[in-house]
Fold Histidinol-phosphate aminotransferase.
Amino acid sequence: MSRFLNSRYAELHPYVPGEQPKDRTYIKLNANESSVPPSPAVLEALSVPLINGMGRYEDPHCMDFRKAIAEVYHVTPEQVFVGNGSDEVLGFCFLTFFSGRSKICFPDITYGFYQVYADTFGVDAQVFALKPDFSIDVDAYVRTDRHVILANPNAPTGLCLPVSDIERILRANRDRLVVIDEAYVDYGNKSCAPLVEKYPNLIVVQTFSKSRNLAGARLGFAIASKEIIKDMNAIKFAFNPFNLSEMALAAGTAAVKDTAYLEKCVKQIVKTREYTVQTLRSLGFYILESHTNFIFVKHPVLFAGDYYRRLRENGILTRYYDEDRIRDYLRITIGTPEEMDEVLRVTKSILCAVA
Amino acid sequence: MSRFLNSRYAELHPYVPGEQPKDRTYIKLNANESSVPPSPAVLEALSVPLINGMGRYEDPHCMDFRKAIAEVYHVTPEQVFVGNGSDEVLGFCFLTFFSGRSKICFPDITYGFYQVYADTFGVDAQVFALKPDFSIDVDAYVRTDRHVILANPNAPTGLCLPVSDIERILRANRDRLVVIDEAYVDYGNKSCAPLVEKYPNLIVVQTFSKSRNLAGARLGFAIASKEIIKDMNAIKFAFNPFNLSEMALAAGTAAVKDTAYLEKCVKQIVKTREYTVQTLRSLGFYILESHTNFIFVKHPVLFAGDYYRRLRENGILTRYYDEDRIRDYLRITIGTPEEMDEVLRVTKSILCAVA
């Protein structure tokens, strides 16, 4: 580090994204990405006139994009905040509401970035342990007065909380914020977005990186009360008013309008997931009940770290966490049917070798 | 505001971008944008396979883009930080080095966002008045021990400091940072980028929004010592690791490599600027010596606020600052020759009416 670095960051440990090795071509099942193209409407939206017109600044209020999201989620554009990926949206939540003074809480096993944000913005974070079955300990969040941030479904477990449990947390204390990170919600869970009218302390965050096949376009959004969204926009205008490019706005607007394509892609992933789970179970794997585009698996004989390495040697990347409580598990993204057939083929040969 | 807003922001005044009215079609000369398309290489780079592959995350280290910039500016990729517009790059400078503890200084008349950043990140900011001729008071920056942020050329004056004066400021105290915001440098000023080896306390910030005709793509970068860049990347990875989309990376890499197109566009703007200045001077205007893609003009008879309104009525948007010291001036972006001919035509008719 340089001698100019803010001393508050001396001990900071930035988030480490999934590896992107370039030594060979891998089947990439380590970052919960999609191998499917985005909606054809995206390609159409990124037209020659749009690209040639990029000498102009885009609309910093992103109104067309916010209107399109609002229509799909049955809210008003004033209840929608849009960002450069849901990571930026979450970052703006921290900056706007928590930075330097607040107390928050989240599970011990969840998206690793929550702790990083807390460190970056000087927020006092407490973790509540997941129960032994990896479900969220709802009572802990009901009892505390801290602001809450929960991934629902959770990662890397893939498990989800029913909306009724989140309502219990919301009702327990209306003076603290509850941020629900719904990155994976489209793969079989119910969104809390319809609750923002009822609970002014709720912020629902979603992404275009999963079910809308647009990780590389960096698009995310929050739905909340219009007062909360106004605050987040005020901070955006005090940090980076033009946070979404003309290209991102066009891609996002086209993608969110194509609800039929979203449904088709989700249906395909769920079908592939169920088939993969069924086959792996028949091979002796224990698998948590996934509501996402990934599965979290362990095997009684095959150590997860070895499984990760053997898959990698065979050209398949997955994500292994060498951490307490979850080092027996491997997280595998659900790819195309062909990619998962290859995973199953390689897995069978690995199991034969260890048998 | 909501009752959840961080109390430190209760008095925050976000940056106000140039107006974007939609009541009619305007000649937009109010945001120092470009009416010229970006390099044709940008269109080529945003290919169908790239767009269809956006299910994948892009490289968060942005290495290809940083390599391309490094090559053009004769530095190493480790000396280059890239961001979602130079506003985000400046925001990361504040977050990484100044946030919550530092003292900085900048001119009373300059890019309005510096004060906004200072407010957002709790930084103690002092302004030093420009001299009566609007030149920067170099001695004030030599004397102070505060970190320095200077736009060079400055906005909205368009005036520039010679590199030798910036070296005096850099040498005066090597324990403080000097951030030089070179948004407009390509239109006739010398960059400080070659000095980063000599001065480890220098950060040079540039943008793709002006000379590269890509305001809508949100691309900016910083050049500094590799230690400083490492710090900025650490904070980026603790806030939003994937800050540039696959589309932005492709557009930026293609644009920066096309140095011939940049030179051609700059030459055209400078030529149009000189012709415009000459004609306006012949109409009695006083104009500061512009080294940018805009001019800052006043007239002995035509009040600047009136001039702004009359141009607007005639379909031409410019930027008027109703602020101390500069309310006699109007800032006019240099557009295409045709756009400037229209400005001159309308100006003549306005002058006839007031004569």
Observations:
- The domain at 7-37+260-354 of chain A is CATH 3.90.1150.10 (Aspartate Aminotransferase, domain 1).
- Chain A touches chain B through 86 residues (CB under 8 Å).
